[in-house]
Amino acid sequence: MSGEEHAIELLLRSPRFDIEEIMELFDVGDREFRELARANPKIARLLEERRLGTLKPLAVQPHKCGVCGEWFLPYGADKQCSDPCKRTAQADRLVRAQERKRTIHASAQRLT
Ligand SMILES: [Zn+2]
Fold first, then answer.
1. DSSP per residue over 69-111, as a string?
2. pLDDT tens digits, 46-67
3. pLDDT digits over 67-104, tens only?
4. pTM summary value
5. Partners of 63 in the β-ladder
6. How far is the CA of 8 from the centre of ligand 1 (A)?
7. Residue 3 — very low, low, confident or very high, per pLDDT cuts 50/70/90?
8. Residue 43 in contact with residue 37, Cβ under 8 Å?
9. How far is the CA of 57 from the centre of ligand 1 (A)?
10. 63: helix, coil or strand?
11. Which residues have CB under 8 Å from 25's CB, separation 6+?
12. Whole-number Å distance between alpha carbons of 40 and 1
């Protein structure tokens, strides 16, 4: 199963997303979507549950990872999908903080 299929499955589990929205998000057309449902029993079942209105609401809403763009179900206040992504985000924050410090320092020097 491709990462995209996994993400579509995840979003289908959330009643918050319309099928149209999901198709738009992943740039999937009607025909492609039907083929996906034929090939993937999980997606087919989720579509059936949506049709019947028996979809169980998720305790948490799918979230898009700010680092790699993968959809995932966050645990607590997680903003990234995995430990490597968390580390990347942490490193990014550090770099940004250092850049900020440098900018402040540079403008302070210009003032003197
Ligand atoms: Zn990620």
1. --EE--STT--SSSHHHHHHHHHHHHHHHHHHHHHHHHHHHHH
2. 999 999 999 988 888 999 999 9
3. 999 999 998 888 999 999 999 999 999 999 999 999 99
4. 0.73
5. 72
6. 16
7. confident
8. yes
9. 24
10. strand
11. 11, 17
12. 8
